[in-house]
């Protein structure tokens, strides 16, 4: 089981085991039960997991998704990226992690691209159903599809074909940008009929979503192990 730690002016959830690390960027759930379970599972795989808190103590443990969605619409990209960079610093400088990757879901998948494009310490990028629409909503300052071309690390992206937040054409544009990079392998998982947020247990009442996650997660774990191995 992990613990809550104070990093600068923010709280984060930490499951610590060794010198390989992953920064976890949650979906709309915030640091809810499910994200903590994933962090604990990574620790069980020998990977230290540190989770960014997008909503400052609010999560599906104590708030509705509608309330969290309202908070998301107020989020500032630059402030969020500064917080995430501070957590990367904490993983490397304070916890002594020699290799650190980043994994995000939905809104966190978008930030995983933006962060890795700016900070080349990142050893891998895992993005589950990232919210990267080409038509930017008002609270998006940056185009994650365009910026993904600056990522130098290997990337694994999981996309559901029935994603209503990110049209198939936008995913294809993301693939084109990622595959045009001169460094950094691109791994793609594509799930016909699955919905945006298929990782979320609350969506597993639909077999197509549960089956997508059942296939996707072990591959992501193997990718994270491979890209942080030996550290």
Quick structural gist:
With 231 residues, the chain is an alpha/beta fold. It contains seven helices and eight strands. Residues 19-226 form the Dienelactone hydrolase domain.
Order of strands across the widest beta sheet? 1-2-4-3-5-6-7-8
Which sheet architecture does the biggest sheet show? 8 strands, mixed
What number is the mean pLDDT?
A: 96
CATH topology name:
Rossmann fold
Number of E-type strands: 8
Strand content: 15-25%
- Structure classification: alpha/beta
CATH architecture: 3-Layer(aba) Sandwich
Low-confidence stretches: none
CATH class call: Alpha Beta
Task: Specify the overall morphology.
Answer: globular
Calculate the terminal CA-CA distance, rounded to whole Å: 22 Å
Number of domains: 1
Number of helix segments?
Answer: 7
Question: How would you portray this structure in words?
Answer:
The protein has one domain (3-228): 3-Layer(aba) Sandwich (Rossmann fold). It is α/β, with parallel strands linked by helices. The mean pLDDT is 96. The chain has helices at 33-44, 65-72, 77-94, 107-118, 144-147, 168-179, 207-227, and strands at 3-7, 10-15, 20-25, 48-52, 99-105, 122-128, 155-162, 186-195. α1 (33-44) links the parallel β3 (20-25) and β4.
Strand-helix topology:
Elements lengths: L2 E5 L2 E6 L4 E6 L7 H12 L3 E5 L12 H8 L4 H18 L4 E7 L1 H12 L3 E7 L15 H4 L7 E8 L5 H12 L6 E10 L11 H21 L4
Parallel strand pairs: 3-4, 3-5, 5-6, 6-7, 7-8
Antiparallel strand pairs: 1-2, 2-4
Protein name: Carboxymethylenebutenolidase
Pfam families: DLH
GO molecular function, one term: hydrolase activity
